[in-house]
Amino acid sequence: MQNKACAVICEYNPFHNGHKYQLEYVKKNLGLPQVCIMSGDFVQRGEIAFADKYARAKKAVENGAGVVLELPFPYCCMTAEKFAEKGVEIAEKIGMCSHLAFGSECADLESIKKTAELLLDENFVKELEKSRKENPNKSFASLRSEKIGEKLGKEYADILENPNDILAVEYVKAIIKTNSSLVPIAVKRTAAHGANEPVCGEFASSSYIRRSFYEKTDDVNKYIPYNIEDLGIDNIVSAEKNRRFWKNVHLALMRETPERLKDICELSGGLEYALVNAAKESKNIEETAEKLKSKTLTDAKIRRMMLFAFFGVTEEKARENVRYTGVLAMSESESAAELMRIARKEKQIVIAQRVSAVRKDKKAYEQYQFCENAGKLLKLC
Fold first, then answer.
1. What is each CA distance from 343 to 4, 85, 204, 349, in whole angstroms?
2. Is 314 helix (H, G, I), strand (E, B) or coil?
3. Which tens digit of pLDDT belongs to each residue from 343-362?
4. Angle at 61 between CA 167 and CA 198, to 5 degrees
5. In a 10 Å sphere around its CB, with 0-12 CB exposed, 13-18 middle and 19+ buried, how is residue 110 labelled?
6. 83 and 73 in contact (C-beta within 8 Å)?
7. What is the pLDDT of residue 105?
8. Under a CB-based contact definition with an 8 Å cutoff, are residues 115 and 152 in contact?
9. How far lies 90's CA from each of 79, 84, 217, 220, in Å?
10. Beta-bridge mates of residue 100
11. What is the pTM of this model?
């Protein structure tokens, strides 16, 4: 297969020095341009993105990315498994990419592949499901690690304890499951760029950067390859904007009924009743989330439940194949222009630089409108 570009599925929430390191690693070691498939207005943990998607994409292009495409809502907010599947689906269908790079604490591709293969084994899946029924108070993540350890050894179970390794396994799973031609590349997250600590020299995690920015506890410009104000103050989602949005979510949930939420993604097994009751019995969204907390419901799962109920994301919509992606930013380089020329010939998905390109495909246009309307409603709130 001819080498084209290397896909990077990302959030850039915000783009920081660790992300720049990854793009430079790909360029140096593979000699390929990078196509970033980036979350838009919301991110995988069910939160609002730190800043406007176009502003974040622009910073990625200024720091090495060739083309930045959108992983649209609601797919950008799915579980790690679905997030990875949708990202890989776009990377495969745009026709631009031959490789897929991702950060990894262990960067042991063989171990990642072996773990992914076991998680796709039908007999293992049945064992895991049986164990979930027998241990209803245990989280799925802990049961999965426990079972992986029993089959392959503790070192494999440890892989599923690290956030980037978990996504790495999901990316490889998606590649295997869909028989994708993408070649996986694991980029080592070493101690030199903050693998185990939120801060290490000039590197810091996205969550640390966001928290430091809001709480003014550290100069975040040390950890990003630009000035944070270059994103545009109006483009950054302030703590107050975030509070307003979630207040609207809470008010909307208070007037919902379980019957109206029965087909909503992430709400099953009576969770629609739990969500509605918690909202009605609470003064705010934080109290609602607190009432829902349990060993089997993570904070991210609860936020996704709330988001999907608010925006009306059904199970049917969540299962749809991705039919479009939007161009959020693009460098002026010849390599980026060549990638777009390749995509025009080989793409199996609508790549929209303008709305008119999406309107020609009814299903793609429906997905485009759903994503754009969610973004508009976010800003109105």
1. 11, 20, 35, 9
2. strand
3. 999 999 999 888 888 898 99
4. 45
5. exposed
6. no
7. 87
8. yes
9. 17, 10, 38, 32
10. 7, 184
11. 0.94
Type of residue numbered 46: G
CA distances (Å), origin 361, targets 242, 284, 351: 34, 41, 11
CA 265, 266, 271, 274 torsion-angle sign: negative
Please report how many Cα atoms fall inside a 13 Å half-sphere around the Cα of residue 54, on the Cβ side: 7
State phi, psi for 353 to the nearest 5 degrees.
-95, -15
Smallest CA-to-CA distance from 168 within 230, 114, 229 is with 114
Token pair for 13: 């929430």
Which residue in the block uniquely carries the two structure tokens 């049945």? 126
Can you give the residue ranges of every domain in the chain? 5-105+164-189+321-380, 111-161, 239-317
Any idea how long the chain is?
381
**Residue 193: its pLDDT value, please?**
53
Q: List the chain residues with pLDDT less than 70.
A: 1, 190-197
- CATH code matching the domain that covers 5-105+164-189+321-380, chosen among 3.40.50.1110, 3.10.28.20, 3.30.465.10, 3.40.50.620: 3.40.50.620
320: CB partners within 8 A, 6+ apart: 363, 367
Residue carrying the six token digits 């592949």: 113
DSSP state of 182: P
In whole angstroms, give the CA distance from residue 81 to residue 100: 16
